[in-house]
């Protein structure tokens, strides 16, 4: 299967009954962007811009950021890059952006919260994003949004950073859905968005109150838990026919998850570059109607384990 996967790597991934699923890549560097292109990624669904900011004494300036974003764009050879604004905080500290010690950094001042607390840094990043968008297909998205007010303030900073020429017309603006409250309130966010990308790593952590990376609760934090799938479903139902829904958490490359996410209405899966060919191959085996039927059953299941059994019964063991 591997040879066939590679041969068709850059072809689009289409289900047997003709639904196109964009298989995108998650990037953290220019080298990743090269791997993503080589692996046949349709676009970059999540560029973790932290890579530019971590491990240095001062933040990169606008010129340096623009150069790095354009280097990524060039490596993608015309495919769209979705730049996620700086997602740091107590769990990923920066020397030039000190945050007070927190007992629960995952529940603290991180992501968009920190960025809006120190808006100069976000404004500068959005300036670099606008400059990039004037030269290459670019989207921007904000991490860890919990309230509509946060998204409005981020939009205001974007408009300010864009300057007198205005926000570039081709710049698509989205947000990560990784806080359960944002998933539940999705309807209120929609008028302010071109797309959403569901971050199932954090969404699962918050939905199940199970810290990501903590081995003691690893068994609990399964993104195929029906509670997480119900949140994904809620977002897809509200977004249907209005804006695009992507998933960029780890689960997007889980062979068992792909048919369920597609069945719920997700039309972009963003995964590690090496996982792109396998996810495309998986999509090509699927029939949308069957995905929808099994996804509905998964929503009513009792546990992630039961969900995996449903998938195995429908498509064979993964
Ligand atoms: C996520 O939370 O699912 C996500 C993709 O973002 P990160 O893993 O960078 O927190
Ligand atoms: Mg996240």
TrEMBL record:
Highest taxon in the source lineage: Bacteria
Keywords: Cytoplasm, Kinase, Magnesium, Metal-binding, Phosphotransferase system, Pyruvate, Sugar transport, Transferase, Transport
GO biological process terms, semicolon-separated: phosphoenolpyruvate-dependent sugar phosphotransferase system
Location relative to the cell: Cytoplasm
Oligomer status and interactors: Homodimer. The dihydroxyacetone kinase complex is composed of a homodimer of DhaM, a homodimer of DhaK and the subunit DhaL.
Function of the molecule: General (non sugar-specific) component of the phosphoenolpyruvate-dependent sugar phosphotransferase system (sugar PTS). This major carbohydrate active-transport system catalyzes the phosphorylation of incoming sugar substrates concomitantly with their translocation across the cell membrane. The phosphoryl group from phosphoenolpyruvate (PEP) is transferred to the phosphoryl carrier protein HPr by enzyme I. Phospho-HPr then transfers it to the PTS EIIA domain.
Name the UniProt record assigns to this protein: Phosphocarrier protein HPr
Source organism (scientific name): Nocardioides agri
Gene designation per UniProt: ptsP
């Amino acid at each position: 299967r591997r040879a066939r996967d590679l041969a068709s790597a850059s072809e689009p991934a289409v289900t047997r009954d003709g639904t196109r699923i964009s298989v995108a890549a998650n990037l953290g560097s220019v080298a990743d962007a090269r791997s993503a292109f080589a692996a046949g990624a349709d676009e970059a669904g999540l560029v973790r811009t932290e890579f530019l900011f971590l491990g240095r004494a001062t933040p990169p300036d606008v010129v340096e950021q623009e150069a790095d974003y354009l280097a990524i764009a060039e490596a993608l050879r015309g495919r769209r890059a979705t730049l996620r604004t700086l997602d740091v905080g107590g769990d990923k500290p920066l020397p030039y952006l000190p945050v007070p010690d927190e007992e629960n950094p995952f529940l603290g001042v991180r992501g968009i919260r920190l960025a809006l607390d120190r808006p100069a840094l976000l404004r500068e990043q959005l300036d670099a994003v606008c400059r990039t968008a004037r030269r290459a297909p670019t989207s921007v998205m904000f991490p860890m949004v919990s309230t509509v007010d946060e998204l409005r303030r981020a939009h205001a900073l974007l408009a300010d950073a864009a300057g007198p020429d205005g926000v570039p017309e081709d710049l698509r603006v989205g947000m990560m859905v990784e806080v359960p409250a944002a998933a539940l309130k999705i309807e209120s966010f929609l008028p302010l968005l071109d797309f959403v990308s569901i971050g199932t790593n954090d969404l699962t952590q918050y939905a199940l109150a199970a810290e990501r990376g903590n081995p003691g609760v690893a068994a609990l934090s399964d993104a195929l838990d029906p509670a997480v799938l119900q949140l994904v479903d809620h977002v897809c139902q509200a977004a249907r026919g209005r804006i695009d829904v992507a998933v960029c958490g780890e689960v997007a490359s889980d062979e068992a998850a792909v048919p369920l996410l597609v069945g719920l209405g997700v039309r972009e899966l963003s995964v590690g570059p090496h996982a792109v060919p396998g996810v495309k191959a998986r999509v090509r085996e699927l029939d949308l109607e069957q995905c929808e039927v099994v996804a509905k059953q998964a929503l009513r299941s009792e546990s992630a384990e039961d969900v995996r059994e449903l998938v195995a019964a429908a498509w064979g063991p993964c």
